[in-house]
Amino acid sequence: MYTLSFESVSLMTSTTSKPKPPGRIxxxxxVGQRFGKLTVTAFAGNNRHSQSTWDARCSCxxxxxxxxxxxxxxxxxxxCGCARRDGWQKRAARNIHGGVFTCSACKMRLPIDQKAGxxxxxxxxxxAKAYRRNRYLNNKLAxxxxxxxxxxxxxxxxxxxxxxxxxxxxxxxxxxxAKRRAKSRGIEFTITLVDVVIPEVCPVLGLPLDxxxxxxxxxxxxxxxxxxxxxxxxxxxxxxxxVISWRANSLKKDANWQELEALVQWMKAKEPPCQ
Length: 275
What we know:
Elements: H1 6-16, E1 34-35, E2 38-46, E3 52-58, E4 63-68, H2 69-74, H3 82-95, E5 100-102, E6 109-111, H4 125-138, H5 140-153, H6 155-168, H7 170-185, E7 225-229, E8 241-245, H8 246-252, H9 257-269
Antiparallel strand pairs: 1-2, 2-3, 3-4, 5-6, 7-8
């Protein structure tokens, strides 16, 4: 009879048992390694996905903190943001040549003074205006709601910016006020900003027109410029508007020259004469 010894049993047990699983893979040490323009400087901990994050220094001198290891090795993050800024500058250099640029919407070569404002915006003014108008029409409720929330949250800042804009753009301010009045009253409005010319003194009373101190809303100063209509039966049409002082406009109001002449004659004949 064949008998098993203790040594043979232990040998069979050791050969048939499963191997022990290996331990946790040690974290890779990326300190000193270079990824694009970034050089890893220190370990920054693990994120919520248990992935290691690292702090790095850019070759331009900037810092980039908490970059995920997969973003570094995958090439999704290769600088502190300077590469994007350099890309915008190179894009502008490619687009603008000899004082002209290419509109990204209509694809026309136009002078640089017709370019709309904004970094990275290569639309002409007409295309930018149409884009903003379409965006407003498609998102009217959301834009109005966000604007109302911003005004409520930054009331003092909005008031300060509005007052500064009124001081620096007096003609545009008068134009917008007249346009608003015409819309609310159903009056014809065909003038443009070119028709709003602010003189140095009031052509009626000779008062100096002060555009730096427009006064509070609803309570203007005597020398504040206002947009007046010669004939109040007509709307804001070219040839029927002029900028005069608020004092002259308040005296005139909606009276015609016959009524004003009769008022002057009555004041001259009154005893004692009005001072």
